[in-house]
Specification:
Layout lengths: L2 E4 L7 E3 L8 E8 L7 H4 L15 E3 L2 E3 L2 E3 L4 E2 H4 L9 E11 L3 E10 L2 E5 L2 E6 L10 E7 L2 E11 L5 E7 L25
Antiparallel strand pairs: 1-2, 1-8, 3-6, 3-8, 4-5, 7-14, 8-13, 9-12, 9-14, 10-11, 10-13
Length: about 200
Amino acid sequence: MLIEASATAGAPSTQLEWNVFLGPWQVLGPFPKPNEEEGSGLRADYLVGEPQVKPDVAVNYGGTRYEWRPHGRHVLDLSGAFSTTNRLENVVAYARTTFTSDTPQDAVLAVGSDDGLRVWLNGELVLEHTEIRASYLDDDKILVHLRRGENVLLLKVENGPGDWGAVARLLPPRIEQPLDHADGVGRGHADRLVEH
C-alpha cells in the first residue's frame, strides 16, 4: 500500500507509512465562537460549505478576511500556527491536508484533539466530538474508506480555555492495539509529542 501526503494539490507529495502523523497542513482561523457553550463553534459554518472548502479561497466572516496559511508541522499546535501572543480562547480553526492512496482501501483514522472537533474525509462528516478535553494520541479511532487517488481530510478544532491542537494518522484497518507504548509515548498529551 502506498500513501502520499501534501497540504495542497500543488505541493510535493511525501510517501507515508501506517502510524505516521498526517500533514503538513493548511490552517484557517481563528474564528470567534458564537458563545462559550461547548460545541457552539463546531455547529457554526464559518465557510458556508465546509466539506467543499478550497485552501486557495479566502473567507470573509464578521468583517474580517481570513486566508489559509501553511503549517508545516504534523502535530497541529493551533495557538502557535496563528503566531499570536494573545491567549486564544473560545475560538475555532480549520486544518486541511490531502493524501494519496494507490488503491481503494479501508483504514482506521486516529485523531486526538484539544478541545472538540469535527472531521470530514472527502466531504463526508466522519466524526464529531464536542466536549472539552486534553489532546491524547488516538482519542478517537474510526474506520474509514480511502478512495484511490487524492483524499482530503478537513479538521475543525474548537478551543475553550487552555491549549489548542490536534493530531491525526492512519492505522491498518484490522489492528487491535495500534502501538505498544512501552516508553510511555502516546499515553500523555499529544502536545508533548516531538516530531523527528
